[in-house]
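Escalated from tier 1: sulfopyruvate holo job.
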Amino acid sequence: MGVLRSHQLPGMASAERAAGVGASGAAALRDLLERPGPVRAAGAHNPLGARLAERAGFDAVWSSGLEISASQGLPDADILTMSELLAVAQSMAVSVGVPVIADCDAGYGNASNVMHMVRRYEAAGIAAVCVEDKCYPKVNSFIPGRQELVAAEEFCGKVAAAKSAQTRDELVVIARLEALVAGWDLDEALRRGEAYAEAGADMVLIHAKGDSPQPVLDFLKLWRMPQPVAVVPTTYHTVTADELSAAGAKLVIYANHGLRASITAVSEAFDTILREGRTTGIEDRITPLSTVFDLQGMGQFLEAEQRFVHRKAQPESATR
Ligand code: SPV
Ligand code: MG
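Tier 2 regenerated the structure:
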């Protein structure tokens, strides 16, 4: 199925555009999941980052709770509300043609909160929602301590609630397994994964935080359910997407590398400016303004202005 590109629809109101992109975004994600090889998603926390991911060639955007929280100078610990995270995810969904997969943390509460969340994310044009089996409020998986899981039965209720709340078949519900992160063994991860798949999850995400990909590879080897598996090789970064795919993973999420790359680049540029007293030394290492204009849709803006903005008289301008 062709992907609707929001920037090619200048006449549509943003809500209509969101609905259109959402319908095709979820279907497009399902198409991607049917194709051979890994589906690769990059984390982002705003439309600019989402467009960079799309332009680089990623198949999908991961609306990262960690990135969005960090971009607000806040911990990734359910401090931001569902509405705040949704607004960012929606802004990305209307800005790119690739599907947006939303990190929905622990679902912002219990099964009833999850139902509300699914309705809102689906209406906002999000292709997939990912909910993790940690207690609410959660804390980022890489923070030691307080990695507590809810009972498997409780999380199955959240998964079933999510599935019952979606209004179109396409929305992909991802059940994220935090057993390995919380110090449980592979058996517990598999037991929970199978229960979540039976409760209706369209996909499971096995998360892990060690340096070695082995626990994730072991999980993939023992996974017997038909649902595809997502992985997040943040700490076990030596393994390639193709190797993960060959081991049975379908979705590979590079969750926070855009944020981390930009922190390094911005810090280096700022340090150089202060040290050298001018920007000459970094000019060939920073993006030209023409690229910024391109990324923010200046071309389409000027085109639309030509077509639709009819001035009665030329205003005086200092630059004329
Ligand atoms: C996120 O990007 O917010 C994630 C992935 O949940 S991770 O930070 O790797 O846990
Ligand atoms: Mg997260």
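The longest helix spans residues 14-34.
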